[in-house]
Amino acid sequence: MMASxxxxxxxxxxxxxxxxxxxxxxxxxxxxxxxxGESVNLHVCEIPVEYQAxxxxxxxxxxxxxxxxxxxxxxxxxxxxxxxxxxxxxQGYQRLDNxxxxxxxxxxxxxxxxxxxxxxxxxxxxxxxxxSELGVTLSVSEDAGRYLCDYTYxxxxxxxxxxxxxxxxxxxxxxxxxxxxGRALQAAVLEMLRLLETxxxxxxxxxxxxxxxxxxxxx
Length: 219
Known about the structure:
This protein is α/β, with parallel strands linked by helices. Helix content is 35%, strand content 20%.
C-alpha cells in the first residue's frame, strides 16, 4: 500500500496598496515550481486582500481539502528577512481592505481569544532553516501586523486547530529574488511538515497521563 500523500495548501495575496506586484504570490508560484517532493500534494492559491472574502474562503479551504497543513504567505514592506509568525491576533483591525471595508467590531471572532498560536514552534523551524546554508535569513515574530495577513492567520488557526503557519516575505529585491524566496518557503514548509510528524509520533508514544504542557521542554 502506498502511504497516502500529505496535502498542503499554501496561499499568497493579491496586490494591494503600494504592492502592485505582491511578492507573496510570486514567491508561492516559485514554490509551486519547486514542489515539496513526491510525498506531498501541494495546492497553491492567490487570496484576496478583503476581510469578508477571507471569512467565506477560509472555511471552504479547510473543509474542501482537509489539509494536514496550511501556510499563508504575505508581504511586509517592513520585513528584511523571511519572517515566521507564531500567532494571530483577534483585535485591532482598523485598516481598510481593497474594498475600503474593515470589520465594524475590528476583530476576527467576537469573544474569541486575543491570540491564537500555531502548533508549530517557529523558533525550531527558524533555527533549522537558518542552519542549512540556504542563503536566506529567517526570523520569528509574534505580531503579524493587524491587517489581512494577521486576520487570515487568526481565522485559519481557529479553523485548523493550530495546524497553520504564516510567513511574511519582504518585497522582491529587498533583498531577495523571487527564486530565493521560493527556496526559503520550500525549506520552511518542509521543516514544518517534519515537526508535525514528530509531534504526532510523540503524541502516540506518550501515554495519556502526560499532558501537553510537559512536552514543550523536550523539543
